[in-house]
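Lab meeting minutes (informal)
Scribe: AK
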Amino acid sequence: MHQKLIWHWPILLLIILTFILRIVKLEQLFYFTYDESIPAFVARRIILWQHIPLIGGVTPFGFHLAPYFYWLYTPILYLGYFNPIAWGYASAGISVLTTLMIFLVGKTFGNKKIAITACILWTFSYLANLYDRHLWALYWGPLTSLVVLFSLYQIIKGSQKFVYVLGAVIALSIHADPSNLVFLLLAIVTWIIFRLPIKKSTFIALGLILFSFLPLVIFDIRHNFANTKPIIQFWAQGRNNPGLEIQKFMDNTLLFPKTFSRLFYAFGDHEVSKQYSYCRVFVEEKFNSIPWPVIIISAVLLLTFIIWNLKSRFKNEGWRLISLLILLYFLGIQTYGTILPFFY
């Protein structure tokens, strides 16, 4: 036991630092806006009046997702005596799991040095520290992606039990934010590329994903299909007309190297509200502050990583999975922000 502690002391230290750095000045830097107020209001109704909602957050289509994360945030708010600062401590605690998964994935796909290096980057990254205090819909993206990648890797290696883990994680994550549908697409692409067998476990995993929509089905039956009508109206009104603008395509392409660069260092103004905000003016200010040589280097690194790992003779399935996920994110963002102007 003592030898194991000595052997794993770097990751244990990083886990402790992960939590400490995310609760330093938590109350002063805690961010509470519309994205937090809705779950707080819903949680208050659950606690005080036992009103269990059947719908969760709304999508750009006007279609609501299932309320699983409203349900999850409720006991945290209750234990915090209705003070949403409790969500900040909870998100800091959950970030420890993210660091652990980074270490596990890094060590499995590569080696211990790669794993520790990645953990150091995540532990001390300014943006990671900032966003890990913010328990909202997109908070779960890093942890979900790591679990999905690790599960797919284990499935490729023949471990069928991870099919259930994959199904459960996808079933929950797609109801946090629609962008997490990329993990379902990654699973489908992985099954095709790696020619994975379709077994009983596969159907059970698909069943979990379909079953996750049950609260929405019940809600629609009870409320004259009020949740699905907006989708029908969206398509009927012709708001889905696709288009292509070169400038938008270039902007969305550069989103990847710019975001990658900011993970290492957040250039420009470090004001917390600007870092959280998705206001167009603040987003442009953040990205315009990044030096072009840094963007070019990041773009070359990302492109080299993807091309190298997608070569047919390269046998590291883990790195190939990460490359596929980056490509699917790229296609998703181009579809979301370039081809469909309604969402831009």
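Next up, CB showed the second protein from the same session:
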Amino acid sequence: MKRFIPLIIVILAAAWVGSSWPAPHWNAGDFDLPGFGKIPVLVSGRVKPLDTVARNSLLIIHGKQDVGLTNGGHVTGMQWLSEVLFNSSVADQHPLFVINNAEVLGLFGWEQGDRKYFSFAELSPFLKQIDEQGEQAEKLQSVQRSAFQNAIFNLRNALILYQRLKNSVQAEETTASVNELEIFEKALPVARAAAARQSTGNAWTKAQLETVARAAQRFETMSGLAYILPVPPAPGLTDQTQEWKSIPESLLHSIGTGSIDPVVRAYAQMGDSFRGGKTALFNQQVRDLSDLISREQPVATKRASFEFLFNRVEPFSHDMTLYVLVFLLACGSWLAWTQVLNRSAFYLLLLALAVHTFGMVARMYLQERPPVTNLYSSAIFIGWGTVVVGLILERIFRDGIGSACAGAIGFITLVIAHHLAGSGDTLEMLQAVLDTNIWLATHVVAITTGYAAMFLAGMLAIIYVVRGVFTRSLTRPVADAFGRMTYGVVCFATLFSFVGTVLGGIWADQSWGRFWGWDPKENGAVLIVLWCAITLHARWGGYIRQRGLMIMALFGNVITSFSWFGVNMLGVGLHSYGFMQKAFPWLVGFIISQLVLMAIASMPLERWRSFQKTASSTSKPLIISEPIPTAPN
């Protein structure tokens, strides 16, 4: 029976992951929000489904992808976005905006209590104060702002985004979109006739001028606020990304053409149906709009539908759970059922890698770029690379160590990526410093592969020290396996870190006119190469042995984390594009933890539990993975 346990575990895990693939069900009497969420729009230079717009906007504004209500219920992302677009008076009442700072609450005359979420309706009397304080904070760099300034700055940005969303498809006070559209459409012939008379030198009449001016002024105001561009370009245009329009822009354009775009008309009809609770009519209008856009923009529709699937599957969220299970199974194999749990961990790790690969390839397809384009994708790729190498190690040594390291690092990197995603769209337009395919395909991929290898070597060292100091499980064969794996991984890291650094210099020479400029990010990369070289030469020269190799691998974690995140936090240089103030305490805490582990590992071997004498033996320790050396260790 035991031999079937790995198969059962993998089947159950695969069924759990696969349960998110089927399309979401909705009752015939409900609004077809899943269908509405698939409709493509252009936001921030990228075509994406409305579902992605809802998720990213809520992450920026609310910090979550759904809204909890005061009565204990919750509003999904698409339900919230639909209310914001079509029925903003209802959306204004939802507790959406996060305020944790007592000084910000004091600015409004409120006392700090149990609540931290507030509605737009509650904040609307203080919009002017928020804007003034936020504008002052904006003039300062992130590192210069106080806690109050950071809080008011983030609140201001969230309110601006919310107001832009409210004015994306209609003016927020609108109650009858179709009726207003019909009135405007009737004025179009007058506007075109007036424009024709003006072009021949004849003056406009006062009534004609007022009719056109009122509409144009309103649409100009909306155009400046609109966040979403839902009107696709006409079929056949070459530069289609630049030709998507907001609804007010399309209406202004219709003054010249004399006709209203059918997409604009469809959104107006959906707005009236949504406010009126006419679900059947709304659902039919969603299908009609989807068919219309799919005919005109088949590629955009296909990508939006795939991204909607990607959002629903949430591969990286599933992977976090899988990696934790892999780690627990691998650790459990050191205590009991060694072969069964080892195989279970290995096969489950293969499943986790398949899910991870799907997520990474899906991002590459949606962005049409190599796997690493920003800090978020670097965390995804580092985790993926670590799992691949961990599987190779596990296949060679079959002792659970490779699986345990891969599971731990896979989970940690995905947690890092999850927190990096809080800033919004992780598939956004590239930073200028990265907007080159050659750069992404060579330097960044190579250097992040080096990061992955360094972290894997560091994780091997962590497990080595923890097992050796706090348990009796570090037998000599196990310790020797740790030593061989760590040494091989450091060699692997040296190669990719060196190649990635050289390729970065070549790209910099072609793009910036210099191979090396002592930029902080460049210095961080070369520090990894130097530390790898020092570690290997110290090992070859006999200055360190097994334990010394582990201690140096631990410090490799410090150098790699500083190169990956720390130099970005300096706020200087050509690569300071990923600053995150909230990450600084975590980075410091991680570095301190590695230094503490190094100090623990430096204790005399007699104090390691795996080296202590047993009660029944007074002659030899349990293991002697290395003699007490005379040379520096």
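CB comment: Residues 48-166 form one domain.
No objections, moving on.
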